[in-house]
Design goal:
2 domains, binds zinc ion, alpha+beta
C-alpha cells in the first residue's frame, strides 16, 4: 500500500500534480490499492488517457504522473524537446474515443452557434475540446464512457450540458445527451454499413451520410431545448410531464 508522506514542518517537494484521485482503485493487473490517480497524458487531439494507477504503478515524469506506457512516451517527447524537436503527443488510438472525436468535430460549430443563440448576456459558453473518460459508476448504473462536452452556464450553475459519448459496452453507438437525458442513442450509418460488410460508398456519399447523421443529432437537441428551454430548474420540473 502506498503511504502518504508524513506531515512535517519541513517543506515537502511533491510532484506538481499526480492527477485526480478516482474511485475504483488502481488499473494495474493484480493491484488492490484503492488510492489511485489518473494518468495525465493527453494526446495531440486532446484525448485523455483513461488509465488510473496508484502511486506504485504511476510514474512521475517532469512533475506529472503517468501510466507506465505514457511515461515512456512522455520521456521520448521530453528528450526530443531537449534536442530541439517539438513533437506532438501521439494518438491514444482508442476506438470509442475516436468515434466521439469524429462526431464531436462535426457537431462543434453548429452546437456552438446554438449555444450563442440560446444564451444571453448573463450566460457563458462551456466548450471543452478534450475527450475525457469517465469510469463506470455502479451506483448510477453509468458504464465507463468517453465524452466531449459543451454547455451553457451562469455564475450559479450549468443551464444546459450537451454531451456526445460512447460507452464501453456499446462501442459502435453514439449517444447525445442533454443534462442526464439521452436524446439519441444510435449507430452512425457509416458504422452500420461497416458492420454489415457493405463496401465503401465513395467520399461523396460518405459526406452525405455524415451530414445526415449530424442533422439527426442536432434536430434532437433542438427539440429538447424547444420543449424544456435552457433554464435548469424549469427543465428539471418539467422533465416528468
Ligand atoms: Zn497499483
Ligand atoms: Zn496513460
Amino acid at each position: 500500500m502506498a503511504k502518504k508522506p508524513a506531515k512535517s514542518e519541513e517543506p515537502e517537494i511533491e510532484p506538481v500534480r499526480y492527477g485526480e484521485a478516482e474511485g475504483g482503485g488502481c488499473d494495474h493487473s493484480g493491484c488492490t490499492n484503492t488510492e489511485a490517480y489518473r494518468c495525465l497524458y493527453r494526446d495531440r487531439r486532446a484525448v485523455d488517457c483513461s488509465w488510473v494507477a496508484c502511486t506504485e504503478h504511476l510514474r512521475v515524469v517532469d512533475g506529472r504522473g503517468y501510466c507506465m506506457r505514457h511515461a515512456g512516451v512522455v520521456d521520448v517527447l521530453l528528450m526530443a524537446r531537449r534536442q530541439g524537436t517539438e513533437m506532438l503527443p501521439p494518438d491514444l488510438d482508442d476506438r470509442c474515443a475516436s468515434l466521439v472525436r469524429a462526431v464531436a468535430s462535426d457537431l462543434n460549430e453548429p452546437v456552438l452557434e446554438r449555444l450563442v443563440r440560446w444564451g444571453d448576456t448573463s450566460t457563458s459558453i462551456i466548450n471543452d475540446p478534450s475527450i475525457r473518460y469517465t469510469r463506470s459508476d455502479r451506483i448510477h448504473r453509468d458504464p465507463g464512457h468517453w465524452e466531449r462536452v459543451w454547455g451553457l452556464a451562469t455564475r450559479t450553475g450549468i443551464l444546459l450540458r450537451v454531451g456526445v459519448r460512447v460507452e464501453d459496452p456499446r462501442p459502435e453507438t453514439v449517444i447525445l445527451t442533454a443534462g442526464v437525458t439521452h436524446l439519441v442513442a444510435t449507430i452512425p450509418p457509416w458504422i452500420q454499413r461497416h458492420l454489415k460488410g457493405d463496401p465503401a460508398q465513395g467520399s461523396q456519399s460518405e459526406l452525405v451520410e455524415r451530414l445526415a447523421f449530424q442533422q439527426q443529432l442536432l434536430q434532437a437537441l433542438d427539440e429538447h431545448v424547444e420543449k424544456y428551454g435552457v433554464t435548469f430548474p424549469r427543465s428539471l420540473l418539467s422533465a416528468h410531464n
